[in-house]
Write a structure and sequence with these properties.
With about 180 residues, this protein is mainly α. The protein has two domains: about 10-95, Rna Polymerase Sigma Factor, Chain: A; about 105-179, Orthogonal Bundle (Arc Repressor Mutant, subunit A), CATH 1.10.10.10. The protein is about 70% helix and about 0% strand. It contains eight helices and no strands. It is globular, with a radius of gyration of 19 Å. It starts with 9 loop residues before the first helix and ends in an 8-residue tail after the last helix.
Amino acid sequence: MESPAERPPGDAWIGELAREYERRLLRYAHTLTHDLDRAWDAVQDTLVELTRAAASLDRSRPAPWLFAVCRAKALDTRRQDRRARHLSEEALDAEPSTDPPPEATLASLEDAASLQRLLERLPPREQEVLRLRFQEGLRNLEIADVTGMTANHVGVVLHHAIEKLRLAMKVAPAPAGAR
């Protein structure tokens, strides 16, 4: 744990935290909203909330708090979108998103693309826990803080998800280039 002398004062600490976590939060929010604009909104709302709660925030463990708030903001925007969707379903269908998903960079690697397809078959909770663990580097306790599960349940969900992926990879056909 850093000493008070090592911590940047007030707003500087918030700025450093925002720079350190902004991209990670955006990537995470995008997996929940599937819309880059909505993900940015969730991240911005999270950073605003950070400025409000900075005095009471545990500076030694900001990641669980940031991801939990970002998750809540992203899920709120997703719920709002669902309510609005029935009003403009045709307009949404006529105008597909032009934003490439973050996973597009993996498409050049066949194994990564195959793994991505397998990940998409997992239930949303398992996808979220895997992303928080392996993409964002959070520990089980931190994931528990973000999702509201217990750390033990996070471990069980991770174990089941990894086992499902292992099994699916064993039975999946080999990539065309591997023959």
